[in-house]
Specification:
By secondary structure, the protein is of the alpha/beta class. The protein has a domain at about 5-185: 2-enoyl-CoA Hydratase, Chain A, domain 1 (Alpha-Beta Complex), CATH 3.90.226.10. About 50% of the residues lie in helices and about 15% in strands. It has 12 helices and 10 strands. The strands form 2 sheets. Strands 1-2-3-5-7-10 form a 6-stranded mixed sheet, sandwiched between helices. Strands 4-6-8-9 form a 4-stranded mixed sheet. Helix 1 (about 30-45) packs parallel to helix 3 (about 75-95). It is globular, with a radius of gyration of 18 Å. The model has no long low-confidence stretch (mean pLDDT about 95). GO terms for molecular function: 1,4-dihydroxy-2-naphthoyl-CoA synthase activity. This is 1,4-dihydroxy-6-naphthoate synthase. One of its GO terms (cellular component) is cytosol. Belongs to the enoyl-CoA hydratase/isomerase family. It holds the Pfam family ECH_1.
Length: about 260
């Protein structure tokens, strides 16, 4: 078994569980997190005994996107490598034959919500909260948010989520189609395991082919993910991103008005 730094990984009775394990920073992801996730999903892809994957988090958050300290350190070149790793993870999650089930235990914001939409199904705790936050810090959800989110919640709702950075409780997320089911917090993993065990009752060949076919049209968005990554290269070194992330770290409101003069 691999030695992971940022996740917990276990396999039991045909089900793999990947748990983001950086609770002190709301399970935000950094280089090590993405590498851990890629390693874990690659392991699952090769394991024929595994029929379903559950992704969840420790503490109060499922995932709140990229670690601000890691993002602040990006420049044009390192940002390009970061973007490529994110695309690699996203396409791996969509490519593995097993369904990926998100068990959203808390805050699911920014890149965390994009991680959620890369999952095949999503179960939410009644304590879960969803939203996008890129524009609040001078970023933009180009890692699936602008591509897949409109297909899930509809064009107008996706624009509201991205452009206003509102946050939505679990029941509202279910209403707009962002999650499949909402359950009491203490029943979250149990319900995710119920979904996974139900998958295990099905023919694995049928599940694999269904996932492949369901992804057929949206897989054509791969080039859009690459395009989004190229756009993000300009974001990482921009003054507006520096202002937004600095304001976040300093716990103040960003002064974006200066860029409208």
């Amino acid at each position: 078994m691999n030695n992971f730094t940022d996740i917990l990984f276990e396999k039991k009775d045909g089900i793999a569980q990947i748990t983001l394990n950086r609770p002190k920073v709301m399970n935000t992801f950094r280089w090590e997190t993405i590498e851990d996730l890629i390693t874990a999903f690659s392991d699952v892809a090769k394991d024929k005994t595994i029929g379903a994957v559950i992704v969840t988090g420790t503490g109060k958050a499922f995932c709140c996107g990229g670690d601000i300290k890691a993002l602040q350190g990006l420049d044009r070149d390192s940002g390009r490598q970061w973007n490529h790793k994110l695309v690699e993870l996203a396409m791996l999650m969509r490519r593995i034959p097993q369904p990926v089930i998100a068990a959203v235990n808390g805050y699911c914001i920014g890149g965390g919500n994009e991680l959620n939409i890369f999952c095949d199904m999503s179960i939410a705790s009644d304590k879960a909260v969803f939203g996008q936050g890129g524009p609040k810090i001078g970023g933009c959800p180009l890692w699936g948010g602008t591509q897949l989110l409109p297909r899930i919640v509809g064009e107008k709702m996706a624009r509201e989520m991205i452009m206003l950075c509102n946050q939505y409780p679990a029941e509202e997320a279910k209403t707009i189609g962002l999650v499949n089911r909402v359950v009491p917090h203490e029943q979250l993993i149990e319900e995710a395991e119920n979904y996974a065990r139900r998958v295990l009752e099905m023919a694995p060949q049928s599940i694999q082919l269904a996932k492949l076919s369901l992804n057929y049209e949206s897989d054509a968005l791969y080039s859009s993910l690459l395009h989004g990554g190229a756009l993000l290269e300009f974001v990482w070194e921009s003054e507006q991103f520096r202002e937004g992330t600095s304001a976040f770290v300093e716990k103040r409101l960003p002064n974006f008005d200066q860029f409208r003069k």
